[in-house]
Design brief:
five-stranded antiparallel β-sheet, disordered N terminus
Length: 726
Amino acid sequence: MSRKSVPSVQSPGEVDSSHLLDALEDVVWSLAAQDLRLLHLSAAAERLYGYPVQAFFDEPELWQRVVHPDDRPRLSTRFLDLRSEQAWDHEYRIIRVDGDTRWVRDRARAVRDRAGRVRRIDGLITDITPHKRREARLWCSQRLSAALAGMASAILHTREKQTLFDEVCRIAVERGEFALAWIATVDRPGSRPRRVALAARNGGADGLPLDLVAAQDRPLFANDAIHDRRLSPWRDTLASRGWRALACLPLRVDNRVRGYLGLCGSESGLFDGEIERQLLELAAEVAFAMERLDQEQRLNYLALYDNLTGLATRALFLDRLAQLVQREGGAPFAIVVFDVHRFKHINETLTYQAGDFLLKELAQRLSELASENLLARPSGDDFALILADVHDESEIACFIHDTLLPSMTRPILYDGQELRIALKVGVACFPADGTDPATLLGNAELAHRGAQNSNEPLLFFSAEMNQGAGEFLRIESKLRRASEQREFTMSYQPKIDLRLGRLYGVEALLRWHDPDNGVVLPGQFVPVLEETGLILEVGRWLIEEAGRQFLRWSRETPEPPHIAVNISPLQLGQRNFVADVRRAMECCGNRRGYLEFEITESAIMQDIEDNIRKLHALREMGVEITIDDFGTGYSSLSYLSRLPLTRLKIDRSFIVDMTENADSLSIVSSIISLAHTLNLKVAAEGVETSEQLKFLRLLRCDEIQGYLFSPPVPADDVLRLMAQPW
């Protein structure tokens, strides 16, 4: 069948108008008014639709069949009105012969004869795909910005990974208006991705070969997904779902791909440089949240469970004791505390690895005797056990002598050597020896210390053991005198900035010069200061003395070291604490940046909302805030982002073990990574060996403190140490 065209009259010398029309980029068409039969179609139609021009004459339905299925009903209704409308102007999508979707603007008008009758309809079709894609990208960018804002809130407040994944996918579809969003995780290197979350506007994603798309170590963006050779095995699925653009973004944690975020759009050409940047930012935010939740889970576990044995820590054990104490009827129970006699000797003669092996073996044996929720490792080589529903000491003694001691003291084979051990056991009973968890555990430990200092393997708590209270009163009296007569002094332990290689600050450590016994270390008198409340008066003096010392150093050097002062929970809990600090700083001319407070997690968590307010006030005054002994507290890391912190200080127990214990090294690495993620500095205390220093440098620790560099020294020695290269 020959191609038909609109009859035209051509004057001599005129150029054939059909040739001019064929040269246009736009498609020119003409229909007969009576039956809407195609009269003319310019050559540009083949470039736009991909079909030969003759195909539209041979198959009249093709004209409407190339219209996108979603636009076809709307357009078919209006198409019939062509003859009655003065002008016709519509935008819609078409599908080329190769499956690509294009946007067109179709304008037409009726051509009438002199009598006013409609003889034919002439139209012009313009490819507006570039314009539409620019609009789509702009709209997508705006939607992405809204989605990123929503996801930022979800990332900050979500505490569970699955909730995070579900929220990211939901927000991507609802606010970002993607057709599909999914997240897959990789459990270990080399394993296949496992889809964990999905959201879609129209149906699911059955048959989605995630391993094909996710087998990427770099971001994948496909603006024409159906024709992208990288996605050819997925072509039928993409076409049937109407997904024209696709992105697959690796989620990297610790430089390893731990998952993928996938997004599909219904428009091709969706991604440009700005949108790709926003999507990469989104993937980075999701990966950051995954890393933070991993660290939070690990560190929260650390607060509740001993890393070496897996048993409950002191904090969790006290919580379980509280549940027993509050049981209806107050059923009796006993707390058994024991340790390995002369355990320190084993560590010193057979190395710490032997000691760790021994503790893990004992924990395993203990787990065979009782449910794990009744066991704990409250400190060092001490173990604790709850004996529920026991009624007298003879019953408890029978269990210890007939069951506990035989099981725990069986020889242990380590490195071909047989270790034989003995236990020292202390017992306290509820309710006779205490009615609150702290008193009960404290009395069991008091009985345990009594056994350690005697020839008896087992001692029950007795009132006589509290005769030490008299000694407490004696020390309290001497401390009151010491406060009045200014018997307290300060020593200063240097802190080293690893990046700059210099002494940048010091920690002020309290010392007591007892006229009767000489210098007394803090561990021997600070608990008495805390319990009696004397720490409030001594603490105020300590803060004021730090300011005075800073001024003295300022007269001798232009850059004196800043001074860190330990703040007790009792001090922080005082209503006028911030005002006291402000008055102390006035004595130092309100200089900013010279003072740092080291506060434990447990102190901050005692009244978290009030303490957050106080810490913000202190930061506004220029006081730096450090969480001391980080990793050992019983707190939720969800509050970290709300605290106005300067640094985290890793507890020395992890530093001591990190070169011998892979778990401790992993904990140190996690704390450093968490601190840097939150834009905080991280300090390590208790650094005593060159090997520890080497590991801390590799882990990018910012600051260190320990005997490897210097013990605490008098104030006069600090400036001399500042002059030394580190």
